[in-house]
Design goal:
six-stranded mixed sheet; Rossmann fold; about 25% strand; 19 helices; seven-stranded antiparallel sheet; 3 domains; alpha+beta; 34 strands; Immunoglobulin-like
Length: about 775
């Protein structure tokens, strides 16, 4: 049975922070988390009395880099020219309007025998609606004035010209897309001068006539050359004349003569050949292709040969399209597929970021058994607001405040009276509380949802010292239709008590292990002391491993003075840790605090490199709490540290590898360890907000590395203030402090805590 001997006066519990003498508070708000184009932020204010204001933000980001999309539409009469099809194009134009303010440039090119850009690529904004008004009539007028025929090559080339009208300063070359919407049939092509041409034939009277789209003549032959064989040829763009001037033969006979001559190709073959070659130029220019293929020829037995070649062209185009870029469609459902098509290019849904039915879960504070607890201040207002991502009013959506009082459910509405969000509040018998917030409407790109409420600290230690608390256990968003949990960051609120407290005297021996002994050991999150020193070669070696003894020493040094005194020990049961070892006090104290437990066989294994799982376990034990749910990483099922790793991930103090795994048994690097220690201490370093005369390291000079700021934070003692950068609070260093003489401090701690005087805070087992 463990007995902790200490003065009762030093451990008096004060339940109201307003009674704390000379108390001060600070807050650390970690950076927001961004995943799937959604940014989740959570911030707490400094304690005002016992209250902190909590704000959850869900920002539906638009793409940071603008993209340009030129739609190239096959507008032949067989596909387009009817009142119904005019309506489909109108619906397509209307669908584009919903992409406004998403950092998208869009335009429309249509083609028959020739091509025309009906709408030049322009940024889609609320003010650009006029550019697409009446576009269906413009398309119809162009078709009516055009020759009957199809020239896919002309459409592709004109679409590229439209994209090239944008400067690369406006839209980068690798952010441009050409969406080709066609049935794959082409009877025309462009000659060397850029004119639309096709083959002609001699009529019975000796004059010539253009072949145009003569399906009856060309479609009656099953032996059209395959596209693969065509592309191996070097076809001339100059048109041919079928038949001869002296023969009065029907058109079909002239076409048969052409087919008998292996050196001459039909219009259909030649048109598709040059269309495919034009596609090659698109991808060679770095423009990304998306193909929407209409199956117009597919089921027509009379033109089965054309159907085959048209299908080969669609397959060829889709093979050159971006991932998931191949769509089969008809003109009437192109508009309904527009969000899917654009989302393929956008890299995320271009319009809906968080669908209706999605749920936000926010678990408040801890239970009282963890030494403190946060309750909802039910008399304070809960505010829900929906704005533009920059914080301005979102038209018909606005903010609304309500008070929970003795209710457990609140419903928030938009200006037009529609239900927007339902908040349900539950409180368990063990004191834990949580919100669930269910969205009733989609959250669109460019919108920001904010929920603000007041949490009240109702339990804490009242003796002198610094206390780290967390107003919530976890908060996460579950998008509708998924089981994914997208986690909000976890802010911390620290308060410091300078002295005083309840009076009392004498010793108190707490012998019952079932009686809560107050919080576990606390870390010093107020002072930003350096806790890593370089090696004898003058380097910091960020990519080297770190030993178990070194890790114990780091966390031992980062304890608050009060916690170090409370859990001080110079003895342990490890068979490989002697009382004279340099790491003994650190290992013994952290073992006494149940932060370190050793290895099987009674080993501490001080010189062994520590693994990622072991390090995560040590760090997360300072926070307490449990984890229930699916594994966050795919490679930790059944691992001994499974629950610790999951919990650490929820708290935001660890991250996985680039492939989504955690790699638990890999040795952790010094850089990774410093990053996790910084997060555990609530530090938020920023490479742009450090001081020029800080300690630097020859092997940590590249400011672009992911660990640069973490290493500098760990190796420089400094004062700081918190500043906001892009909505996230980071440290801005103000003054550099001397690096602490840890060896001298540890000697002083040992003398103070190991003395026989009971005021020394001796801990015995």
């Amino acid at each position: 049975m463990r007995i902790r001997k200490f003065l009762a006066a030093a451990l008096a519990v004060v339940m109201l922070i307003g009674m704390l003498p000379a108390a001060s508070a600070a807050v650390v708000n970690p950076p927001a988390n961004t995943e799937g184009g959604i940014t989740l932020g959570k911030q707490a204010s400094e304690l005002a009395g016992s209250d902190t204001t909590i704000t959850l933000d869900v920002v539906a980001n638009t793409n940071a880099n603008p993209i340009a999309i030129q739609f190239v539409l096959d507008a032949t009469q067989s596909l387009f020219l009817s009142e119904n099809n005019k309506t489909y194009v109108e619906e397509w134009a209307n669908a584009l309007k919903f992409m406004a303010d998403k950092n998208i440039y869009a335009g429309l090119t249509i083609f028959t025998t020739t091509a025309k850009t009906v709408v030049a690529p322009q940024e889609l904004t609320a003010d650009s609606e006029a550019a697409f008004s009446g576009v269906e009539n413009d398309c119809a007028a162009f078709v009516m004035a055009s020759d009957h025929g199809t020239n896919i090559q002309a459409g592709i080339r004109e679409g590229m010209n439209a994209l090239n009208s944008l400067s690369t300063d406006t839209v980068a070359a690798d952010k441009r897309y050409l969406v080709l919407i066609t049935d794959g049939g082409s009877f025309y092509w462009l000659d060397d001068n850029g004119n639309a041409v096709n083959n002609s034939y001699y009529k019975a009277d000796g004059t010539t006539a253009t072949m145009a789209n003569n399906d009856a003549a060309e479609g009656g032959y099953e032996a059209l050359t395959s596209l693969n064989d065509l592309l191996a040829e070097n076809l001339s763009a100059e048109p041919q004349t079928y038949g001869s001037a002296s023969a009065s033969e029907p058109l079909a006979a002239a076409v048969q003569a052409v087919k008998d001559d292996a050196d001459i190709y039909t219009n259909f073959e030649t048109g598709i050949y040059f269309a495919a070659k034009e596609l090659d130029k698109v991808t060679e220019a770095g423009v990304k292709l998306v193909t929407v293929g209409y199956p117009y020829y597919k089921d027509d037995a009379k033109v089965s040969a054309l159907s085959k070649l048209a299908g080969e062209f669609i397959d060829y185009a889709q093979s050159k399209s971006v991932e998931n870029g191949g769509f089969d469609a008809t003109l009437d459902n192109t508009a309904s597929q527009l969000d899917t098509i654009i989302s393929t290019m956008y890299g995320q849904s271009a319009n809906v970021a968080v669908p209706a039915g999605s749920v936000i879960t926010d678990v408040l504070g801890y239970s009282s058994s963890d030494g403190y607890n946060y309750d909802l201040a039910t008399s304070e207002a809960i505010r829900v607001s929906l704005t533009n991502a920059n914080g301005t009013d979102e038209g018909g959506l606005y903010w609304e405040s309500q008070t929970m009082g003795d209710k457990d459910t609140l419903v928030f509405h938009t200006k037009d009276g529609k239900e927007f969000l339902t908040l349900k509040y539950t409180k368990a018998s063990d004191g834990t509380e949580q919100f669930t917030l269910t969205l009733h409407q989609d959250l669109l790109r460019g919108q920001k949802l904010s929920i603000t409420y007041t949490a009240r600290l109702v339990g804490h230690m009242g003796f002198a010292g610094t206390y780290l608390t967390y107003p919530n256990v976890e908060a996460y968003l579950t998008p509708n239709g998924t089981e994914n949990k997208l986690y909000f960051p976890r802010p911390s609120v620290t308060y410091t008590v300078d002295g005083g407290g309840s009076s009392g005297g004498g010793e108190t021996d707490i012998e019952d292990p079932d009686v809560p002994l107050g919080p576990g050991p606390d870390l010093n999150t107020t002072d930003h002391f350096a806790y890593i020193i370089g090696r004898d070669d003058g380097l910091v070696h960020p990519m080297d491993s770190i030993t178990r003894a070194e890790v114990a020493t780091i966390f031992f040094r980062m304890l608050t003075d009060q916690s170090r005194t409370m859990f001080w020990s110079t003895s342990n049961n490890y068979v490989d840790a002697d009382s004279n070892d340099w790491f003994n006090n650190a290992a013994s104290t952290l073992t006494n605090a149940e932060i370190i437990t050793g290895k099987p066989g009674g080993l501490f294994d001080p010189d062994a490199p520590i693994t990622r799982a072991e390090f995560a376990t040590i760090a997360v034990r300072f926070f307490g709490g449990t984890y229930e749910g699916e594994d966050i990483f795919p490679d930790i099922a059944g691992h001994w540290a499974n629950q610790y790793i999951n919990r650490a991930a929820v708290l935001g103090i660890i991250e996985g590898r680039g492939d989504g795994t955690f790699d638990p048994d890999a040795y952790i690097t010094r850089a990774e360890a410093m990053t996790i220690v910084n997060r555990t201490l609530g530090r938020a370093p920023s490479a742009d907000h450090m001081l020029p005369d800080m300690i630097t390291w020859p092997d940590n000079m590249d400011t672009s590395t992911w660990y640069y700021a973490a290493v500098q934070e760990a190796t420089n003692s400094h004062d700081f203030e918190l500043v906001e950068v892009n909505g996230t609070q980071v440290e801005s260093w103000t003054v550099l402090q001397p690096v602490r003489d840890w060896a001298a401090l540890e000697r002083a701690w040992s003398q103070a805590n190991s003395a026989p005087d009971p005021n020394g805070g001796e801990v015995t087992e």
